[in-house]
Amino acid sequence: MPLSHRRLRTPLIAGLALAAGVALFFVPRIPQDPAYHNFADTRPLAGIPNFGDVASNLPFSVVGAVALVWILRRNRVGPDRPFLTAVERRVWIFVFVGCFFTGLGSGWYHWEPGTARLFWDRLPMTVVFMSLLGVQVMERISLRAGAALVVPFLVFGVASVVAWRWGEMRGAGDLRLYALVQFYPMLAIPLMLVLYPRRYDRTLDLVLVFGWYGLAKVNEALDVRIFEWMGHAVSGHTLKHLAAGAGMAQLLRMVILRRPVGSPPVPRASAASLP
Description:
Layout: H1 3-6, H2 9-24, H3 51-55, H4 58-73, H5 86-111, H6 115-141, H7 143-169, H8 176-195, H9 203-221, H10 223-229, H11 236-257, H12 268-272
Helix pairs in contact: 2-8, 4-5, 4-11, 5-6, 6-7, 6-8, 7-8, 9-11, 10-11
């Protein structure tokens, strides 16, 4: 990439954030649609209401737990290890803590869907979105800048859900900030992958994560139709959870197998193990 183009990379990423933030002022307030809670598959099983939508959250908590055990049990930091610095490792811990609690929060919400419980579904997801954005800034743009931005990102993510819930309690709920938290990383991170050199291998895994996320959003939008197409065997929202859970498993696989660019490849046997 020519030097003149390289100088435009960071302003482009920052400008996208600024443009998205400014655009919010021109979008009407977005209250929570009460019909959102009307999911296609409400069948109970084994005493669990809405079994499909509740049980399909299990992969989030399993992936999160496995990831945390793997990251914390041994020293994973070094020039030939999955993390070049301890600060990157700490932010990845936030990613998978958010993943673990997404399973619990979403399962709690789907047990008895309603706006009050939806808060606990969305809150841990913002931790995943914002910590993943922060770690990609660290690993693609600047370690120092990313480390400085992680806490503000997390605070903003949590605040977006708190502000929405507080507004709902006053009859003036507004999802605009939460929408920014969810979708800006989905635009900014792919741009980082294209515009900045990689510090680690296995970038394709991260691309596949976004593919799983896109599939999850399609399944969510087609909840009722998929339920009908599948002969009431499984709903689109259940498949949404499974696709998103597969995406988090793909993300964990990337972290386990990746190494800094230029370091020796990981032996197949040791890469597959989860000590």
